[in-house]
Design a protein that fits this description.
single chain, 4-stranded mixed sheet, globular, alpha+beta, 4 strands, 212 residues
Length: 212
């Protein structure tokens, strides 16, 4: 029986939080990077459950798609999910709160009109992102004054998805703390706390360097 296989394009993108989860959970997997020109054939095979990537194939041959779902599944298998039902709901709320930030980012990225793009950047980085970071900071400080992870002493998928957003999309994959966090010291500490998890740090150091 083979191990897990994670299928995605040759980049961080939507699969990176799954890779970080695999690393933190200490679960071995094969990181299958499908070139764009090979994707139509893979899609036509019917193996991707929703006809998109990322998706995983489990050791039993089962398939699962949607990056957030995969990440949570891995974390649950690896003991990185909150044990309390309400805490799990808080982790889901934070995860969904991070996911909310992607549509304006994507819209900004693909905007061709430079004037409009600058307006979108100003709105996102000047209003949307700081407002959401303020809420994340408050949630973090609810537990031990922000000196631990979002849900306490234990790393969960809420921390992983927050770190991935900051690292992949704000710091462009570099280990440096994104400048957007500088006004929120507890979030800076959280970013460094997640990066200091040995397995996550090892993965970030050795992963392929890609633009996105």
């Amino acid at each position: 029986m083979s191990g897990y296989k994670l299928f995605y394009f040759p980049g961080r993108g939507g699969a990176e939080k799954c890779r970080l989860a695999f690393a933190a959970a200490k679960i071995d997997y094969e990181d299958v990077r499908v070139p764009s020109e090979e994707w139509p054939k893979e899609k036509a095979s019917g193996r991707p459950p929703l006809g998109q990537m990322p998706f995983i194939v489990t050791p039993e041959g089962k398939t699962l798609a949607q990056s957030g779902t995969i990440m949570k599944y891995i974390c649950k298998k690896g003991g990185l999910s909150p044990a309390d039902v309400f805490d799990e709901a808080i982790a889901d709320m934070i995860s969904d709160g991070v996911t909310d930030l992607f549509p304006p980012l994507i819209k900004m990225h693909f905007e061709k009109d430079e004037t409009k793009k600058e307006e979108l950047k100003k709105e996102f980085f000047g209003t949307t992102l700081p407002a959401r970071l303020e809420k994340f900071e408050a949630l973090l400080k609810n537990r031990n004054e922000g000196k631990d992870f979002f849900l306490g002493e234990k790393l969960t998928y809420a921390d992983i998805i927050f770190f991935d957003f900051c690292n992949s999309f704000l710091s462009k994959g570099e280990k440096t703390v994104p400048e957007q966090l500088e006004k929120f010291p507890p979030l800076v500490q959280l970013y460094n706390r997640v990066l200091s998890v040995p397995e996550i740090n090892e993965w970030v150091n050795k992963r392929p360097k890609t633009e996105m």
